């Protein structure tokens, strides 16, 4: 299928007079794996917050499958097929992996069916376990999972809700090299039958797994394009290197000419 799944137009968000987003346009096509990058404070999380109904924009529209999401409640947006992860964990530590997934999947089920003890796991939960590779850990309490496994569980909990658009906020933050590799593979796999937007800072990760990248800076879209186009763009280099130079006078400046 082709066509725009998400269309953000002229989006502005103002916090106490400060413009966190300033006229952002973003189009994500059906089936895309889009990376959203930008320095700290660029407005990435704010954009996701507006799409998911957590923050009200001062102006602009967010169309998902043609319908405007602005003004809708968070749970209505989830039900309409938009799922997100947060930078902070939302798993229940005492519940097992499969129970967490089941709970996440249950939001579409009527209340009475939640009280009834069901045999086996639903198709959505089984599929989420298989995709994330968590089947072997199904009966472990979430509290004993490693950082990486916990992130995969959160992604699995999203998939179990069968969203058509997934918004992932820094999924590889704090992960080991091996966990990053596995997460990259997982995102690629998920993107085969979902539309995925990933906020990510890690350039190495982007080089490996990103195709289309949108760069935000000071609340505006600075550049959009392939990873190579974005990395080669002098405006992007300036934004990232400018920051690097502020932090370090020596080593970072020596990398001039390339976005790391
Ligand atoms: N609730 C809020 N009230 C006031 N200012 C806010 C609020 N949320 C975000 N901001 C400000 O808006 C700007 C954009 O923040 P946002 O978290 O969207 O940036 P980001 O690109 O996600 O950054 P990071 O990479 O650090 O997570 C920042 O200057 C931030 O301080």
UniProtKB/TrEMBL annotation:
SUPFAM superfamilies: P-loop containing nucleoside triphosphate hydrolases. InterPro entries: AAA+_ATPase, ABC_AA/LPS_Transport, ABC_transporter-like_ATP-bd, ABC_transptr_urea_ATP-bd_UrtD, BCA_ABC_TP_C, P-loop_NTPase. The keyword Nucleotide-binding applies. It holds the Pfam family BCA_ABC_TP_C. Residues 6-243 form the ABC transporter domain. The keyword Chloroplast does not apply. GO terms for molecular function: ATP binding. Keywords: ATP-binding, Nucleotide-binding, Transport. This is Urea ABC transporter ATP-binding protein UrtD. It comes from Sphaerisporangium rhizosphaerae. The lineage of its organism: Bacteria, Bacillati, Actinomycetota, Actinomycetes, Streptosporangiales. The gene is urtD.
């Amino acid at each position: 299928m082709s066509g725009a799944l998400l269309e953000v137009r002229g989006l502005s968000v103002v916090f106490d007079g400060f413009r966190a987003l300033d006229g952002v346009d973003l189009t994500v096509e059906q089936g895309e794996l889009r990376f959203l990058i930008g320095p700290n404070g660029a407005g990435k999380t704010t954009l996701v917050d507006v799409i998911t109904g957590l923050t009200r924009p001062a102006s602009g529209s967010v169309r998902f499958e043609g319908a405007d999401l602005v003004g809708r409640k968070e749970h209505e947006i989830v039900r309409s097929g938009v799922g997100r992860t947060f930078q902070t964990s939302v798993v229940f530590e005492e519940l097992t992996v499969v129970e967490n997934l089941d709970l996440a999947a249950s939001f579409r089920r009527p209340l009475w069916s939640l009280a009834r003890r069901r045999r086996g796991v639903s198709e959505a939960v089984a599929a989420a376990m298989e995709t994330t590779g968590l089947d072997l850990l199904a009966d472990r309490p979430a509290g004993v999972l490693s950082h990486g496994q916990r992130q995969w569980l959160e992604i699995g909990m999203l998939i179990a809700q069968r969203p058509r658009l997934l918004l992932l906020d820094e999924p590889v933050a704090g992960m080991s090299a091996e966990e990053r590799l596995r997460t990259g593979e997982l995102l690629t796999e998920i993107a085969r039958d979902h539309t995925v937007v990933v906020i990510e800072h890690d350039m190495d990760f982007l080089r490996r797994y990103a195709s289309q990248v949108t760069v935000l800076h000071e609340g505006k879209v600075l550049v959009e394009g392939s990873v190579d186009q974005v990395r080669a763009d002098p405006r992007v280099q300036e934004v990232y290197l400018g920051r690097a130079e502020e932090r370090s006078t020596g080593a970072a400046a020596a990398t001039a000419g390339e976005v790391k």
